[in-house]
Amino acid sequence: MAAQDVLPSRKGSSGFSALNDQRVRGVIFQVLLIVAIVSFAWWIIHNTAANLRAQGIGFGFGILRDSAGFQINQTLIDYQETSSYVRVYFVGLLNTLLVSFIGVILATIIGFIVGISRLSKNWVVAKAAYVYIEVLRNIPLLLQIFIWYFAVLRLLPAKRDAIDLGPFGLLNIAGWYAPNPVLGRGFALVAAAFIIGIVATFVLRAWARRRQMATGQIFPLFRVALALIIGLPLVAYFVAGFAFANPPFSLEYPTPGNFGPRGGLRVFPEFIGLLMALSFYTASFIAEIVRAGILAVPNGQTEASYSLGLRPGHTLRLVVIPQAMRVIIPPLTSQYLNLTKNSSLAVAIAYPDLVSVFAGTALNQTGRAVEFILITMATYLTISLVTSLFMNWYNRSVALVER
Amino acid sequence: MKKSIVPLVAGAALAVSAVSASAATLDDVKAKGSVQCGVSQGLPGFSNPDSQGNWTGLDVDTCKAIAAAIFGNADAAKFTPLSAKERFTALQSGEVDVLTRNTTWTMSRDTDLGLNFTGVNYYDGQGFMVPKDLGVSSALELSGASVCTNTGTTTELNVADYFRSHDMDYEVVAFEKADEVVAAYDAGRCDVYTTDQSGLYAQKLKLTNPDDHVILPEIISKEPLGPAVRQGDDQWFNVVKWTLFALINAEELGVTQDNVDEMKNSDNPSIKRLLGTEGSFGESIGLDKEWAVNAIKAVGNYGEMFNRNVGPDTELGIDRGLNKLWSDGGLQYAPPVR
Amino acid sequence: MSDIQSETDLVYVRDEMLSQSPPPHRESGPVGWLRKNLFSSLSNTVLTLIALYVIWIVVPPLIDFALVQAVWSGDSRDVCTTINQGGIQPNGWFGACWPYVKDYFAQFIYGRYPVEERWRVNIVFVLFVIGVVPLLVPTAPFKSINLIYMAVVFPVAALLLLTGGHMEFESMIGIGRELAPLGSGLDFWIEYALLTLVVLGIAYAWARGTGAPAGGLLKLVLTMMLALAAVIFVLSLDLGLEFVPTSIWGGLLVTLVIAITGIAASLPLGVVLALGRRSDMPIVRFACVVFIEFWRGVPLITVLFMSSVMLPLFLPEGVSFDKLLRALIGVALFSAAYMAEVIRGGLQAIPKGQYEGADAVGLAYWQKMRLIILPQALTLVIPGIVNTFIGLFKDTTLVLIIGLFDFLGQIQSSFTDPSWSTPVQATTAYFFAACVYWIFCFSMSRYSIFTENRLRTGHAR
Fold first, then answer.
1. Which domain holds residue B138?
2. CATH number at residue C161
3. Which residues of A touch C47 (CB under 8 A)?
4. What is the dihedral of CA A109, A114, A115, A119, to 10 degrees?
């Protein structure tokens, strides 16, 4: 500005010279951007309203209270054909969360096993892990879902036949008929014993750690904890069983029926197929993340830990993985989110997830595309944002504090 | 309507060429030289492509008849495969000129969705197919069964209504595509496959052992299937409607693919009017005199079309049943050409 | 020293080096290798056995299915069905049905593209290979010409060949319609000329406002508008090619069209978004963050649903997009968000000194980005871009859910043909599809690793 005052400004163009100021340009540009975005949004809304009017379709979320009229096979909450679309939404959302949650756990376990195997000194194990990763992550997930559902599960016996898994129930093409836990009168006692066992373990752990810090003595925590968590409920089980003269907890087994096995806890093949495909596919990415994370820990850490006399297992568990976790967690989070979003491919094999029942069937029956898709997108967006916020918080809490 | 895919022109907002669903479909069709028909993505007997991409079936023939009536050439029929979900949007937006895709004529579709159904080329109803070794002879014995069906259609709602009204419990597995339903049923995932009965006959062919399955006698809904056009274009509506009527009238009058040329010399005034040797009925719907002759030459009369694609001698082996002419006790009835 | 030794004749001293003796038998050769790598300890042995068992239950059945039991020739479903199912194979047979794949192979590649017009698709494939191979080889010359070819010549040629050209453009704002009859083409060109004048006017005003010489800017704008006009003109030419609507495209053709267009559209969009996200202007930054996080937060399938059922509602009445184009828009916006994050990584990896250096020599923002930052950042993120492309390539399979026939969709649609319908049909087809996708994705991931290694040596100190 000062320079401008010194230089003689050109006549006639003095009104425009402000354009040379970067800040002024910035403001102009941003104002233009806002105008563009707002007018674009207005244009879209205007067109949509006009189109909906022309096609005689209303707009409003009141339709969600209407009765759905169709059935859904896997419902975690009570659902009937007469239930409203709101209930359809929650049924779908819960199914999405269920398959994502179990998928995340399975994928993490498989991913860590494969990722660590990939670095194994055992040639066969390392190569097998390598082939697993390269094959699984280079085939589209949708194709893998089809392969699991239409090819692998097809090898199971037909619906009125079943493989007897003994204590684990029956398995056939219509799903896994697992034993259904039936809770008796004394079950509250067993549950209470279980919770007490867990709480006691935590207290014990804190005490053992303090003692180890002070005296160096190691307490056999694992064995005692096992006794507390398993033993205590077991004792409670027998006590309750005698007190109420019936077992507090029993398993109901499926029985053969007219149209295949009946009773038991039914796990649908669509669920199994989707879960398998999601877990194995995501695991191949997690394995690479784990490998990269472990390789990111300097070799000196491992050597130092060996020189302190720690065995390889302990080195991995106590020294390498805790440090590797810092590198692993951010990409791991995005894999978890990917898995959740990918669970929407359920629509291809009729697993009743959110997209399938809400943005699919319900949308088709009502023809209200705008409302249903907006709600679905907003739901996934919320899940993503909440997960990222939580993970960012967690990430900050484990991050290395640098000087 | 302009022939166009919308070109991608960056920067210049004005350069988007629009497909406008203008009022005069017949003029547009004549200008581009072909009729674009929306068909299914593969339903044997109705509209099914082979490995060379040639389409065959009852709906395909209906479309060919329309093309022949306009151009005198059945090859002027072009096909766009559509899923159940997108068929109405495709018609509304002008992507196709006529929807010949085993679509059920219902009131809401005829009014709300801006469609006009031009007639019925197949009277259908929803039925059930079960494996023979299930030992079931009536749909009322199906309590506790799992049912495979298509999502996004009326069948899903019909089956829910049926089982509920008979107080039977059931489990539904609803797939997006018909092939997936067949695959799941064939593998034994479900006990029952339900869709339009014609569809059951068609899909039965794709099963590993078609003879091991039986179609139950119950019909649980009315499904009149027919071609549909956009509302607000009466001329085009008439062309499609009367092409179908011409085929039905031809059967009633005994005009076939082979004898259509000789029949022109017939003394029967009804035949004369139909085949354009008397009156000017073709001109009154914007076509030429030979419109019906060309349509019949291309695909035969309704009976021939039915027998060739779905009739008892085909792999589907469907009985004429409701689709017999009214004079034979069926429902196919066309207003006279006069 | 040595002189003394050689002179003294000591018989017990060797005068040449003894050759190395081989290591003990147990430590060398295959046995030693096995001992060291597979059976060094009990736990290691157990691991080896588990791994071998897993391989044993997976690999032999696959080979058995795909090669040993497989049928290689035949012309109907009989050869691929067992006697019980009405065919000629022994009961219990389970093998791949390759004649079915052979019969449908052309459809898997071209979809229902008319047989007599398929040479056009072949030419496009060839043109693409000619353009892309030298672009991928880092040492190949004429990179800038190559880029122009891929960015301008190839897309126009491909669009022209695949659709048949002869597109009709019509006026949008109505001025042209007043002056010339609709459909003559003239109406469009009148409006185009008007638009050119308006753009030139804005450029001139901007140049006057900033005091920069107007000539250069005007020339640039005019060249771009003329180039665009040339492209539009070429597309509207009638070359006598038959018009092929996108509704009958299919197979690998559609997969490649979606993947390549998606990546090509998302690259510039991604650059803009990444720059926007690192901008000093808060509103620009905010808008870019919202845009990126929105698309990254929702599954692609909902994006495709949106583009297939909601996009038509967004447009003015009477205007509609082609179905393929609708999917392309969805895919492009979706992958642009991912691309933006990849490119942002590259921008962040450029040392601050580069930015400051560019500022110090007085480069304006776009000059700085165009000449200094982006060339470095984009080279750095080539592996990331290739990985995004692999992801996109795999994700193209999702379009089958909205009813487009990509490679996998075309394969699924062939299941409706009763003349080949057998119990092994789906398994054979999926196996084949998996192999094809794997070959594409694996070779691309190898390329990504190759560039990564090349870049790493480049930056090693």
1. 125-222
2. 1.10.3720.10
3. 120, 122, 124-125
4. 140
